[in-house]
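hey
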């Protein structure tokens, strides 16, 4: 055995203690560490011939890298839609690496069984019927990819084409959505459907939600075409929801595949105030929901839910002499893009087991209240302007200045990042340069929002002085 490997094995308990100490140091200061970082491109290290050993590597990491990592796990990080990692999820994730299971099979390890159980619990959270088959994937992009791949197979069968065998050369279909997430458009490209096959349906006035009258008009005018309708349950900019009940009613009249992108909005099911937004979700053919957003588990983790298991099997079956029979097996590698699969379900299982439905409902409720509070503070400010009502946990606003531009917003957010009290990401809403705050961390409450708002005000005043 290599000398360094021998030394690491002999000193493994000591090394684990060192990592534990580093983790404790991070969590002790998690509310004080700056949530955002700007890091210059580093000079690449040349690969050592014999290695320096894990202890020296860990020391190098602590000295040169740890202080430059963005604190996206903390309560003051409002960029993208990023959850943190609950204590239970962190413990689960550590055990994923320790046991290092390839969660592809059904009976040769406990890992796939835990995934089935976790999916069962998640369906209870989202109120999904048993008809849905579910599995873990890397994120919303891959969940959308899986769902659209099966939708493509369904579309082929409507036209007497087995796309899994014959390809998409003869396939004709349209994708209809109002505010499609970029990952969905990316998936159309990866699947060979093509980005240009997306038809943008008008939104309701001053909303990101689809105008169902316009959607029905489109469906009526294109009865001869096979169509995939993508509904949104929580848009990125404003957290807006399409009317899933109305779209479901259209599904009774027109033959289309309904995919619901509920990457974070699916967790509205845990809120008594917001769960009505998900009425009609069980009419979907496929659903995307992220775990590393509002479930607050480590990256990367998401779920795909699909009512058409046979079509999943046609698209993703993996036939080999050393593998199970795809026609009989429940093994996950027959129903998703990966053969080798990290045990992503375990952190989700841990946090669901540890805190239950009520624990996660409390996080959602508190986050939504904090987002509303931030919106109230922004509306009362002369320096900022709220661009859309807060639907769930997303606050969309901009700088209240005649010269507001993308560059001004970008420069302002760089100053916010360097201030160290909060982190936000930019967007464009209805043609206006804007700022988004996504409140989705398990620790965040109103005090953190107030701290972030004071940072916004202070940095705006500094920027105003530099512009005058």
């Amino acid at each position: 055995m290599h000398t360094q490997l021998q030394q690491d094995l002999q000193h493994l308990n000591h090394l684990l203690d060192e990592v534990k100490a580093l983790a404790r140091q991070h969590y002790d200061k998690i509310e004080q560490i700056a949530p955002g970082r700007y890091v210059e491109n580093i000079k690449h290290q040349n690969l050592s011939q014999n290695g320096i050993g894990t202890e020296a590597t860990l020391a190098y990491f602590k000295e040169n890298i740890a202080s430059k990592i963005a604190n996206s796990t903390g309560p003051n990080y409002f960029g993208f839609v990023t959850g943190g990692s609950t204590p239970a999820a962190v413990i689960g994730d550590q055990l994923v690496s320790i046991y290092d299971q390839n969660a592809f099979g059904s009976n040769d390890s406990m890992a796939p069984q835990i995934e089935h159980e976790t999916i069962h619990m998640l369906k209870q959270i989202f109120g999904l019927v048993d008809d849905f088959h579910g599995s873990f994937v890397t994120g919303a992009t891959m969940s959308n990819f899986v769902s659209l791949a099966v939708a493509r197979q369904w579309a082929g069968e409507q036209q007497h084409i087995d796309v899994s065998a014959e390809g998409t050369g003869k396939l004709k279909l349209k994708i209809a959505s109002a505010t499609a997430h970029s990952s969905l458009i990316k998936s159309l490209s990866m699947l060979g459907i093509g980005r240009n096959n997306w038809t943008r349906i008008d939104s309701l006035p001053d909303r990101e939600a689809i105008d169902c009258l316009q959607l029905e008009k489109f469906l009526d005018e294109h009865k001869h075409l096979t169509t995939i309708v993508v509904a949104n349950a929580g848009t990125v900019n404003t957290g807006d929801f399409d009317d899933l009940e109305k779209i479901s009613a259209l599904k009774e009249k027109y033959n289309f595949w309904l995919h619901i992108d509920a990457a974070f909005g699916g967790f509205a099911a845990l809120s008594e105030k917001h769960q009505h937004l998900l009425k009609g979700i069980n009419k979907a053919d496929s659903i995307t929901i992220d775990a590393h957003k509002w479930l607050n588990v480590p990256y990367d983790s998401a779920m795909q839910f699909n009512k058409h298991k046979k079509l999943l099997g046609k698209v993703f079956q993996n036939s080999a002499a050393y593998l199970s029979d795809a026609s009989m097996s429940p093994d996950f590698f027959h129903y998703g893009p990966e053969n080798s699969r990290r045990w992503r379900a375990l952190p989700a299982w841990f946090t669901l087991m540890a805190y239950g439905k009520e624990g996660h409902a409390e996080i959602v409720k508190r986050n939504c209240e904090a987002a509303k509070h931030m919106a109230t503070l922004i509306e009362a400010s002369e320096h900022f302007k709220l661009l859309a009502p807060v639907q769930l946990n997303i606050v969309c606003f901009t700088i209240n200045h005649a010269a507001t531009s993308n560059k001004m917003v970008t420069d302002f957010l760089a100053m916010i990042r360097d201030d160290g009290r909060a982190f936000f990401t930019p967007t464009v809403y209805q043609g206006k340069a804007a700022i988004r705050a996504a409140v989705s961390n398990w620790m965040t409450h109103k005090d953190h929002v107030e701290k972030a708002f004071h940072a916004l005000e202070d940095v705006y005043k500094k920027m105003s002085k530099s512009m005058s």
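The first helix runs from residue 3 to 10. The two ends are 67 Å apart (CA to CA).
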